[in-house]
Amino acid sequence: MNLFDYIKYSLFNIRTPELVDKMRVHEYAKKVSAQKYKFVEIKTKNVTSNCAKFIFEIYKIVGYLLSALKDEFIIKDGKQFSYYLIEVSFNDEMKKIYATLNKEYMFERIKKGENPNNVFKETKENFTKFKNFLSGENGKEINLTFNLLKDFANISNFDFFLFLRSFCPSFADGVYNSNPVFNNTSNAQVVDDLTKLDDAVNSIIIKKELISALNIFCKYAGLSPIPDKNMKALLTRIKYLQTPELLSDIIIFLLKDFTYKPHVSYSDANIFVNYITDFTKNLKNDMESIVKEIRNGKIASIRNKTFSGIEILKLTNVSEDKNAQLEEYDCEIFTCVEPLQYIKTFVSEIFEMEYKAALNDMFVGCEFVHKERNSQALDAFYTLNDSKEEIQMFDSTLSPDSDNLKRLKNWIISKNKANANRDLIENMVKKIDAEGNKIVLNVYNSVLDLTTILKNIIEDCVNGTKIEISNSSRVSTLEKFSVTIARAMLEDFENFISLMKNFVR
Fold it and tell me: Distance between the two ends of the chain, CA-based, in angstroms?
């Protein structure tokens, strides 16, 4: 401000917008010139080498941490570190409890013969103790540590390299032991950089806990800790930059932007919410996975016993491949696929090849005590006999030229654009699946009926009773049906029933 402007403003009380702005700039110039480290040359409005040297001293201390801080907190929002922070806080008791809350531990106990329900019950009890520990006073300290570090990580948004290169074009990034020669600069980008620095440093809360937080993070990231001497120097310099309005005054003076204010916010995250939510979900999934593995192991054992080397026949359209496709898009799957494969195999490879003719012979030669039982047996026989064709017709509901398949394909194509068809497709899957499971239930009940009848016929033949048939003596004269055949059939039917029990809905 020149003398003439000063006289107009002070003596004559003239307040034009231009003159007011000049006076305000003059006031800010006085405030900036009074600052200890002289970051700005008032006459030229250049940012001085003193500013560069001051920032470089900070960079030498934290430069090696910046990339890790940015990756963990700015890009990833600190979730992984928060879990690490929680878990390193565990005392010996909590470490023991934590070691029990995983699939491997539970499954190992079950493999040794313990009841799965007892194992799951104990796991749930341990998880309750686990959650109680996390909700205690210890949890408050961990949250504080995390939030302090998350706020400190904002400093990684400030590009030290680009800032310092404005003062020294030959400045090399990552060379912390160098002695660069800095010069004053008029580069306009420097002022923009200072606004980012202003935001970052004013978001940092300097507490003793911040020191331990930084050391924990160094260990987490596999980096050497900040020496005590350097830590003290770092916090001293940050504290200076936090001097009320220090950087703001500089920025306002250089930009003549009297509305400028730093964007400051403090983290108040409760890291235990996500941790417990994820832990609960993972523990539930572990238990479900164990139950599934036990069930699958049981099914595999019964399947091997039932089919004994026979290759399982697949469905062409309503298939495991379709299920995999539906799972990829988080959609309902066909639960009927596996049991229908077993029915198709049983009917084709066992019933038709070994027992169909024998049963026909039985119906011709045996006289049932009750006519309704004869009808029941015939119904069961025809249900089993016709099931292969019924499965084939069912399978065609998703044949290449079917409307259902076209709808499914269209939904998959549009899935990433809109979910409008999702409910329609899921309803379609449920409807088709219900039809498939209806076949499963009918076949299951039919084999149950035939099994009961076979048991009674064997009893009649062996003991001369008339529980099921009145002419058991004639069985020995039949060409294809006999007690031996009946016993073999009964064993195969019972194995099949044991297998299908796992799928009947």
Answer: 89
